Amino acid sequence: MIFFDNSMTAPEGAVCILTMLWHSSSLCVSILPPVSKVNMMRPVFVMLGLLIVSSIVSAQDTNGNAEKILDEIVVTATRTENKVSNVPLPVQIISASDIQRSGSEKLIDVLQMQTGLVIATNPLGVSLQGYPNPFGTGIQMQGMDPGYTLIMIDGEPLSGRNGGVLNLDRIAVNNIQRIEVLRGPATSLYGSDALAGVINIITRTPEKNEAGGRLHYGSNNALGITFSSALKGKKASLELFGNRSSNNGWDFDKSIYGQTIDPSVSYNFSAKSHIRLNEKNKLLISARYFNQTQFNDYEIIPKDLPKVVTGTTVEDEKSVYASWDYKPTSRLHIVTGVYATGYNNFSHAYLQENDSLYEKITLSQSLIRPEVQVNIGQTKNQWVAGAGINFESVHSNRYSNTQRLNAWFTYLQKQIVLFEKLNLIAGARFDKNELYTAQLSPKLALAYKVKPSLILKGSVGTGFKAPDFRQQFLDFSNSLVGYTIIGARELGNGLARLQRSGLLEPGIDISPYKDGVALNPERSVGINLGVDYTLKSGTVVQVNMFRNDINNLIETYSLPFKQTNDKEIFSYTNVNKVFTEGVEVNIQHKVNTHFRIRGGYNFLIAKDKEVLDQIRRKQIFKRDVVTGHSQLVTLSDYKGLYNRSAHTFNVSAIYLNDRYKAGATLSVKYRGKYGFQGVGGYSDGNLILDDPREFVSGFALVNLVLKKDLGNHINIQGGVENLLNYTEPVLMPSQYGRGYFLNINFKF
Which helix (H) or strand (E) holds 517? Predict the structure, then answer.
């Protein structure tokens, strides 16, 4: 029993509750800051406290009326259909109505407003000095970089990462049925890239004959045209979707020639057909096509003589999926499918003065994957088994020749429900790759329904991620903006090439790198403990505590010397032992028939265990940039891994008025301060985050959307994105300042 003293503050109460929950588990890991630090985040806890109090005041605990949110069906967590309440894993659903209310045209804008999902800029973007960042931005989950989250469409992976980051603009949002976000290692079902979790974008399946679309216009002359149609017959259905999007880009620094973000135009098309041959046999055929052209215009300074370079960067993707769904009995379900995708990224740059080719960059990647999955039994007692083969190839002028990678995998999972209260899932996946030793990834998860309104969840699983070709063998210098990236195994050869070509001073000692660096596969153990509590119909509180221990984490770092053009040299290294741990809290409360509130908070600690050990052994020093004196780094100095925020929170207030067919949505996402290597030109020489001057200030993104239905077929939305006009030109160039938009949605 808990006794609260009248003098206890809201932050202290929150700490008390979370600390009790954590220490009541078998894990005794300190993840909460002391109260003195928590008081600095008083506004965060006040926000969460208000949500909790408003829920409790208006709620009565009911045993038989579980919130509909927990009754939604998900497939990503187990590869089978399960209710959220039955899944013993931290999973979140972003519905089509959530996406539509946001008014956004970009998937990245939808994801970044969710609890625990943070926009992470590739560190290589720091070197661009105001030029457009070709590496883009991705989603950080549970403190791990975007490269550790698997992005899928309808259960099939997207390929074509640039600098480890997928261009999420490749995914149009207007035909999404829902997005399932699975947190924690999911390699027991999905393999190498799912170390942090999975984001599965599930597109619409026709339910009736209909047609619709959207006209979008926004700041920077952003124009979007979307059309979709669905045909549904007795035995077949067809969904068609098309989108064209363009914008003029924007410029944060008029003193530098060219724009921060260049103009672009993109096209997105997809088709999906379901065919029911009979009661036991179904066919699914789907195809997608994406094409984006960016119109580049830069200034380069070779040999101190400025020159203008123009050209285009073209990115395209084609994919097709076909499957045969065979269900001879209610207890046997077999799905056999083949997925094929091809990704291309071509960049051509020409000198404006004579139209001669200055640089050409090519990248082509293909993946063919046949796979079969067999489900035996039903939800309460079910086996899931599967196997497949990946045939993958990569060709680029950044590599010496075409690289091929063949791998096969098999997985097995058992789900059983005991006493109508305990849902137990145990499984493992075996991966065999040509380039590294075989990997076994087991996982165990359970959910216990104390009563319909209270569900306890826990899971533990292992994960792995193998070094990719880019991390091992890349040797690339971008002459447009000057940076160089060298794979770990090619580091000695690459530095020697730079020195021979005069891009490194002869006196720089490259002998420590002459044999290259051997990278090891990354391994992790992830633990999640959670509680889903339904206060009453319309009010749900979800708490998830996580811990990830990663060995041999591969991260980008800059070498301790620069090229003669003062540009960075990057490579890859294993960070010996890293951990991330924290707490995620989600609250959804229906105030009345018109008004709903959603809120979330994420606390994160992410540190390098080797650095902690070296600090304890008094082996790490930092140099005062003013006096030049050196001093020991203390444990309190070390703030953790770069580009991680200890605190983030989000709030959405949704108002709907059926009488006037109108509504409004106000969304706020706050990201606390985070460290970034070399920010503001500061460096104390030890390459770890240990000084306040290495931090980027926290910021808030505020979006406001108003909507009005005109009859039954037309809906008008208008809104303001980034109401507070936050910008960070170098670290977040893709985040434009305050922007306005108007959408006209129609459906017939």
Answer: none
